[in-house]
Structure formats: structure tokens, C-alpha cells
Design a protein that fits this description.
With 411 residues, this protein is an all-alpha fold. It has helices at residues 18-34, 36-52, 56-84, 87-105, 110-125, 129-136, 143-172, 174-193, 205-219, 223-254, 259-287, 289-309, 313-327, 330-341, 347-376, 380-402. The protein has a single domain, classed as MFS general substrate transporter like domains (Growth Hormone, Chain: A).
């Protein structure tokens, strides 16, 4: 039985109310600030590599620790939110971000820096999965859009932060920039978290559980089997996703365009990802999360294939925009699928586990792409590796959607 530090649940009339929309706005702001821990290293990668004098593969390992921390943090912070309410994990996340950035700024070696990045991942996790789960309890008719908007903080951070971080790294160095990012996180996230003290409204959990059980039954597989398939699909899609997102700045530097152009492409990529996430929410409300996931994953594969054949400056800008437009809705779809096929009281834990898989995929993809570059001297093979993993995801989701024996149910 869960225990919240706040008062008892709000009346059901608060669902889809103005209070719910205001809460969504705060969640978006929290995600925009807190998710900086996911993207700052992507911009700092060339400077960190040069400072420590290490190879690209070794320099990519701290991002792996970031993803690991984010994945474990999704489960830990989600559990804390289930027990104490959303304020506690967000506050802890803010403190973890402050400590992580401070430690990374004074790190004397890549090992200490990598551990600090793991702490940043843990802190950022508090402003992603737990916020999506919290918001899902405040909406019914517009749940798809609400969850999609809550997830947009992660991409807004990737759109807004990289150009500023690149500017201050060039002006003041990456170490000073890290410290100041930590200060900003603490002084903004702590007061914002207090605006979420109201507990979620009551909802008809029995009816929601029955509806989810009916949808799960329509698949003709067990809950554990579905979780296993979603776990593998989450790894596969995000190994593919990591190649451009983690290495686009370094890739542009290798091509002679400079890291600033790569930071702009990353910002564009994630900016168009915002459009994808909102659009995906609308589509999922109409055709379901599984079908929307299949569309997004298929289009992501097309964008990866374009990277293989085109490397001109203008082409990379266009492809990066398309990549963001195609793949932005992938991760939020897992949150929608969880709410469609599992009981609401299980949503936090199950979403945390699946997000762990997606972040594990990002960690593996970020590292293996750097390793492939070191071995081949080119990113072309890394793009092809990402495409192969993407095909695994498409195959799993296609099987779920069209598998023999799937039973149709009425809405």
C-alpha cells in the first residue's frame, strides 16, 4: 500500500481540470531544466576527450554511465514517487544534479568524471518517467497528449541547452560550465518542485484495471511476455537512436564542419522531436500506442539510412531535422502502451523498467558507436549498426500488432 506525504487524494473532478493543465506546465518546466544532465555531455565530448587525452571510445563511456544512472534512477525515483509523492524524488534529483555537475567540474580523470555522469543520470531521471506517470493520473480524455507534453521537457532541454553550453565551453572552458549548470539546476528545480505538492485525484482504478486486462487479453500473451518484448524493443530502438544523438557533434567535427554546427544539428534534431512527440500523442489517442510506435520506429530507420548516403553540411541539417521528426515520439509511446495494457497501480514500476531498457539501449548505442569509429575510422559502419538494431525493434512491434491469433476487442 502506497503512502504519500501529502494529504489524501483529490476529488475525481480535478481530472482534466485547469489544475491538471497547470500541473502539466510545471512538469514541462521541471523536465526542461532537469533533463540537461542527458545532453550536456554530448556537447562537451570533444573538449573532454582533448582534456583527458583519450580515444573516442573511452571518451564515450561517461555517457554510458549517464544512461545507466538514468535507467536505474527511473525505477528508484518512480518507487519514491509511488510511496511519498512526486515532490520527494524531484528534490532529490535536483540535489543529485548539483552534486554531479560539481564533481565533474573538478574531476581529475575520466573515471571520476564517468562516476559524476552517472550521478547526473540519476538526478535527471526524477524529471522524466516519474513526471509522466504523475501526469497520467490527472488526465483521462487527453491522457495521450498530456503524457506527450510531459515527456517534451526532455527534448526541450536538448533544444535549448546545447547552444548555450557550447558557447560557454568555448568562452570559459568545460569545467567552469559544468559547475554553473549544477548551480542553475539546484536554484530552479527545488522551488518548482513545491508547486507539485497537491496529490493526484482519485480515479476509477477498478474500471481502468479491467479495461487494461481486456486489452492485454486481446494480445493473447501474458503480462510478463509483453514486458519482455517491450524490454527488448526498448533496447533495440534506442541503440539505433543513440548514434546520431550522441555522436552528431563529434561527427561534424570529424567532417570539418566544427562542433558548433553539430550542436546546432542536435538542437534542431530535438526541436523537431518536440513536434513528433505532440503529434504522436494525438495519433496514439486514435490508433493506439503500439501502432504509433511502429510508424515512428519505421521512419527512424529511414532517417538512419539517409545518414549513410549523405554527409554534406546542408544534407546533415535536413536529415537531422527528419530524424528528430521521425523518432521523437518513440519513448513516450512506451508510457502510453503501459497505460493501455497494464493496471494503473502498476504503471510507475513497469514504465521504470521499460525506460531502463531504453536507456540501456542509449548507453550501449553511445558506447558501441564510438568503439566502431575507433575500429573503422568512420561513422558509416556505426550508422549501419544502428539501422540493424532498428530492424529488431520494427520486427517486434510488427509482430505485436499483426501477430496470428491476436483477438480484436470492442472499444
Amino acid at each position: 500500500m502506497t503512502t504519500h506525504i501529502e494529504a489524501g487524494p483529490r476529488p475525481a473532478s480535478d481530472i482534466d481540470s485547469s489544475a491538471a493543465w497547470m500541473r502539466l506546465a510545471v512538469a514541462l518546466a521541471l523536465g526542461t531544466v532537469g533533463s540537461v544532465g542527458m545532453w550536456s555531455f554530448v556537447v562537451a565530448l570533444p573538449a573532454v576527450q582533448a582534456d583527458f587525452g583519450i580515444a573516442r571510445g573511452a571518451a564515450s563511456l561517461p555517457f554510458t554511465l549517464t544512461m545507466f544512472g538514468f535507467g536505474i534512477g527511473g525505477i528508484v525515483m518512480g518507487r519514491l514517487a509511488d510511496r511519498f509523492g512526486i515532490v520527494v524524488p524531484v528534490m532529490l534529483g535536483a540535489l543529485a544534479l548539483g552534486a554531479g555537475y560539481g564533481l565533474s567540474g573538478i574531476a581529475g580523470g575520466i573515471g571520476t568524471f564517468a562516476l559524476a555522469q552517472g550521478l547526473l543520470g540519476l538526478g535527471s531521471a526524477a524529471t522524466f518517467g516519474p513526471l509522466m506517470t504523475d501526469i497520467s493520473h490527472w488526465f483521462v480524455r487527453r491522457r495521450g497528449i498530456a503524457v506527450a507534453v510531459a515527456s517534451c521537457g526532455n527534448y526541450l532541454a536538448g533544444t535549448i541547452w546545447p547552444p548555450f553550453i557550447q558557447h560557454f565551453i568555448a568562452a570559459d572552458g568545460w569545467r567552469t560550465t559544468q559547475v554553473w549548470i549544477g548551480v542553475i539546476c539546484v536554484v530552479t528545480l527545488l522551488p518548482l518542485s513545491l508547486l507539485l505538492r497537491r496529490p493526484p485525484p482519485s480515479h476509477h482504478s477498478t474500471a481502468s484495471s479491467a479495461n487494461a486486462a481486456g486489452k492485454l487479453g486481446s494480445l493473447g500473451i501474458s503480462a510478463n511476455a509483453l514486458m519482455g518484448l517491450l524490454f527488448v524493443a526498448g533496447i533495440a530502438c534506442c541503440v539505433a537512436m543513440a548514434m546520431p544523438q550522441v555522436h552528431i557533434v563529434a561527427y561534424c567535427g570529424d567532417l570539418g564542419y566544427g562542433p558548433a554546427r553539430g550542436a546546432e544539428m542536435l538542437s534542431m534534431m530535438l526541436g523537431f522531436g518536440l513536434i513528433s512527440r505532440i503529434t504522436g500523442g494525438f495519433i496514439a489517442d486514435r490508433i493506439g500506442g503500439v501502432a504509433t510506435l511502429l510508424i515512428s520506429s519505421g521512419l527512424q530507420g529511414i532517417a538512419l539510412l539517409l545518414y549513410v548516403f549523405f554527409d554534406g553540411l546542408f544534407s546533415l541539417y535536413v536529415i537531422s531535422a527528419l530524424f528528430g521528426l521521425f523518432q521523437g515520439s518513440i519513448v513516450p509511446m512506451y508510457a502510453i502502451i503501459v497505460r493501455e495494457y497494464f493496471a494503473p497501480q502498476e504503471a510507475g514500476t513497469r514504465l521504470g523498467v521499460i525506460l531502463l531498457a531504453t536507456l540501456g539501449g542509449m548507453a550501449l548505442g553511445g558506447w558501441i558507436s564510438g568503439l566502431i569509429f575507433d575500429l573503422s575510422g568512420s561513422y558509416q559502419a556505426a550508422f549501419l549498426n544502428g539501422l540493424a538494431w532498428n530492424l529488431v525493434n520494427v520486427s517486434i512491434v510488427t509482430w505485436l500488432l499483426f501477430r496470428p491469433g491476436r483477438r480484436m476487442i470492442t472499444a
